[in-house]
Design a protein that fits this description.
Elements: E1 2-4, E2 20-24, H1 31-43, E3 46-51, E4 60-62, H2 69-72, E5 75-77, E6 79-84, E7 89-94, H3 103-116, E8 121-129, E9 143-147, H4 149-161, E10 170-173, E11 177-182, H5 191-201, E12 205-212, H6 218-232
Parallel strand pairs: 2-7, 2-8, 8-12
Antiparallel strand pairs: 1-3, 3-6, 4-5, 6-7, 9-12, 10-11
Helix pairs in contact: 1-6, 3-5
């Protein structure tokens, strides 16, 4: 359930009709959440509320996007909503894992909110285990997309123009029956469930994901957010010829603590 915060302007801040909702999946390497951090930080999005749910592990911390001492002491919780009306963009950032057996209730609550606030479409940023790819998925780019039938009608042609690769289906019973294909997203968290629920409810949803492994997933986050930017054009590239597109994104201050402190010099 969405709960607006006072500084966002009350009920006016929760009017997301026609907006694009960006949501990360809690998936392998937390790539979707890191990419979402880059979007919120770069666009300097305003926090307009919270997503109250019992499906996520409770947590509280300091402001992850602090820019000065004055706002560094603001508290953040496990699911917060940010908005940028000028780009008709709303972001739900998730910062903690799901409680066991709570995937389905969360998806139902989220999609109910999407319908009630009349968001135009949902974009889910996710990731999947690189080591569980099949032969076809090993070829070419590690980035993939999925579109629900309702969104396919609207933007399917654009995806072809961008030369994007759709997520391949894999054999349901490898080596036994290779003709029956199913959607398989290992390590993707709620990705498959949320996508299939959106298909059945007629919600326009796109899934953008990257095959990766656990470790330092900052490069994966930059790759995924650049993938998103190819489509939505959230920020303009500084140079069309530049190969380093990470410079156009503002890294949040909280990323300084991503791997904790360095090794003590006394060890050496």
């Amino acid at each position: 359930m969405f709960v607006p915060c006072d500084r966002g302007g009350g009920s006016a801040s929760s009017d997301f009709k026609g907006f694009t909702l960006l949501v990360p999946a809690v998936s392998v390497g937390n790539v979707g959440q890191l990419a979402t951090d880059l979007v919120i930080s770069t666009l300097n999005m305003t926090k307009v509320g919270y997503f109250y749910t019992d499906c996520l592990v409770p947590m509280v911390g300091n402001n992850p996007y602090a820019t000065a001492e004055e706002n560094s002491m603001e508290l953040s919780i496990n699911a917060e909503v940010y908005s940028l009306p000028s780009k008709k963009l709303v972001v739900l950032q998730i910062r903690s894992p799901f409680i066991k057996n709570k995937y389905r209730p969360f998806c139902q609550t989220l999609l109910s909110w999407v319908k009630s606030c009349k968001c135009a479409r949902v974009v889910l940023l996710s990731s999947s285990h690189a080591y569980q790819r099949d032969d076809e998925q090993l070829l070419g780019t590690p980035l993939r997309y999925l579109l629900t039938p309702d969104l396919e009608k609207a933007v399917g042609g654009l995806m072809q123009e961008l030369n994007w690769k759709e997520m391949e289906k894999v054999a349901a019973y490898p080596g036994i029956n290779d003709t029956e294909k199913v959607l398989h997203i290992p390590g993707g968290g709620i990705t498959k469930l949320l996508f299939t629920e959106s298909c059945s409810k007629g919600i326009q949803m796109a899934v953008l994901l990257k095959f990766c492994s656990e470790g330092d997933n900052i490069p994966d986050a930059f790759a995924l957010v650049n993938y998103l930017n190819e489509w939505l054009q959230l920020v303009k590239s500084e140079s069309n010829n530049s190969t380093d597109t990470s410079s156009q994104w503002k890294i949040p201050s909280s990323w300084r603590l991503l791997f904790g402190n360095g090794l003590p010099p006394a060890l050496f």
